[in-house]
Design brief:
With 362 residues, the protein is an alpha+beta fold. Helix content is 49%, strand content 14%. It has 14 helices and 8 strands. Strand 2 and strand 3 form a beta hairpin.
C-alpha cells in the first residue's frame, strides 16, 4: 500500500545548526518522517584532482585541507601510506608523538561534535562550556606543533618537532584540567532531563542496520559494532594497550556518549605516551619511491582510507580518498531519521552522526 505524504520539508542547505551546507529533504505524514534524502554538492573543492601529478611534499599540505576539523589524521594517513610504499621506518619516539598529536586532534573534533549536538537541542550553556574547553585542547596542539589546525606535523620517517620536557609538563597539567571539566559536562549530559527527552530513544539504529549500512567510527560503535576502530590494528596503539569504546543503545544519546568516553580515552593515551616516551631521534629519514597502496586510519568520524600511486620521484600519480562521513550520512538518512516520530528531532539526529561535508565534497 502506497504511503501518503502530507508534506515535503526541506532543511538546509543553510541552517543555523549545520557546520557546513547540506540539504535534507524529509517526507512526512503528520509529524512522523517517512523518508529522507540527503542532497550534497554545495562546496565541491576538487582537491584529489589538484593532488595528482604533484610531489608528496605538496600533497602532504593539501591532504590536511580536505578537512580542517580532522586535519591531523589526513596528514597521518597520507604520510603512513607513503612510508608503507617506500618501506620507511619510524623511530619509536616519533611514533609516540604522532599518537599524542592525533589524539589531541580527536579530542578537539569530538568536543566540537558534542558542542554542535548540545547547541542543536538548545542546551546552549553546555554547548558553550564544551566550546571553551576545546580551546585548551587546541592550545596544546599548538604547543607541540606550532599550529592549532593545519599542523603538517608528520613527515616520512618521523615528525617535525620534539616535545620539550617543560611543554610535556604543561600539557599534562592542562589535560588534568580538561579531564575534570569534561567529567562535569558528561555528568550534566547524562543526567539532564532536557537531554534525556531529546536524545534517549531518538534516532535508534540497531547493530544489524549499522553493519548493513557500513557505518564507521562512533556512529557504528554506539550501535554495538565490535572491532570497528582501526586503532586496534595500528602497531603503536596496540603497544599502548588500546581498547575500543562501545555502547549498545544505538540512539542519539549513545552516539554523543561514545564521543565523551573517547575523549577520556584520548587523555589516557596521551598521558601514557608522555610518561613512557622513548628516548632517541624523532626522524629516521628515507626516500619516497614508486609504488601503490591503499592505507587506512581511524579518523574522529571513522575509517579514513587513502589509495595512492606514486612514481620513482615520489610524485603522486593517482590518489583516491574515502572519508567516513559518506557512509554515516547515508545510514543517518535511511536508518536513524526514518520513522522519527517528530520532525523536530531530524536536525539533532543528523548532527548526532557528526557529518563532515568538507570531507565528502573534497
Amino acid at each position: 500500500m502506497k504511503k501518503t505524504v502530507d508534506v515535503s520539508i526541506p532543511l538546509g542547505p543553510v541552517h543555523p545548526c549545520w557546520k557546513e551546507p547540506v540539504r535534507l529533504k524529509c517526507e512526512t505524514a503528520g509529524e512522523r518522517v517517512l523518508r529522507t534524502e540527503v542532497e550534497l554538492g554545495y562546496m565541491k573543492k576538487g582537491i584529489e584532482r589538484i593532488m595528482r601529478g604533484r610531489p608528496w611534499q605538496e600533497v602532504m599540505f593539501l591532504a590536511e585541507r580536505v578537512c580542517g576539523i580532522c586535519s591531523v589524521i589526513h596528514n597521518m594517513v597520507f604520510i603512513e601510506a607513503m612510508e608503507e610504499i617506500s618501506a620507511i621506518a619510524v623511530p619509536p619516539r616519533a611514533a609516540y608523538l604522532r599518537v599524542v598529536v592525533n589524539e589531541l586532534d580527536r579530542m578537539a573534533s569530538h568536543i566540537l561534535a558534542n558542542f554542535s549536538y548540545c547547541y542543536t537541542i538548545e542546551h546552549e550553556t553546555l554547548a558553550m562550556y564544551l566550546l571553551n574547553t576545546r580551546e585548551t585542547v587546541l592550545d596544546n596542539l599548538e604547543r607541540i606543533t606550532g599550529s592549532r589546525i593545519n599542523t603538517a606535523y608528520m613527515i616520512p620517517g618521523g615528525v617535525r618537532f620534539d616535545l620539550l620536557p617543560e611543554d610535556a609538563a604543561a600539557m599534562l597539567a592542562d589535560l588534568r584540567e580538561v579531564e575534570d571539566k569534561m567529567r562535569r559536562y558528561t555528568g550534566i549530559f547524562e543526567t539532564g532531563p532536557l537531554i534525556a527527552l531529546r536524545s534517549k530513544g531518538i534516532g535508534v539504529m540497531s547493530r544489524e542496520e549499522a553493519i548493513r549500512a557500513h557505518t564507521v567510527g562512533p556512529t557504528a560503535r554506539a550501535s554495538g559494532v565490535e572491532d570497528s576502530d582501526l586503532r586496534l590494528r595500528h602497531p603503536t596503539y596496540r603497544e599502548l594497550g588500546f581498547t575500543q569504546v562501545t555502547r549498545t543503545e544505538g540512539d542519539n544519546f549513545a552516539r554523543i556518549m561514545v564521543r565523551f568516553q573517547e575523549v577520556f580515552q584520548s587523555i589516557d593515551l596521551i598521558r601514557k605516551c608522555i610518561e613512557t616516551l622513548p628516548e632517541g631521534p624523532i626522524r629516521g629519514g628515507g626516500l619516497c619511491r614508486a609504488g601503490e597502496v591503499s592505507y587506512g586510519g581511524e579518523a574522529p568520524r571513522g575509517e579514513l582510507t587513502y589509495s595512492i600511486k606514486t612514481d620513482e620521484y615520489g610524485r603522486v600519480v593517482d590518489i583516491a580518498i574515502r572519508t567516513p562521513s559518506i557512509m554515516n550520512i547515508e545510514a543517518c538518512a535511511h536508518s536513524m531519521i526514518r520513522d522519527v516520530t517528530s520532525i523536530a528531532d531530524v536536525t539533532s539526529t543528523f548532527i548526532s552522526s557528526d557529518p563532515c561535508i568538507a570531507c565528502n565534497e573534497r
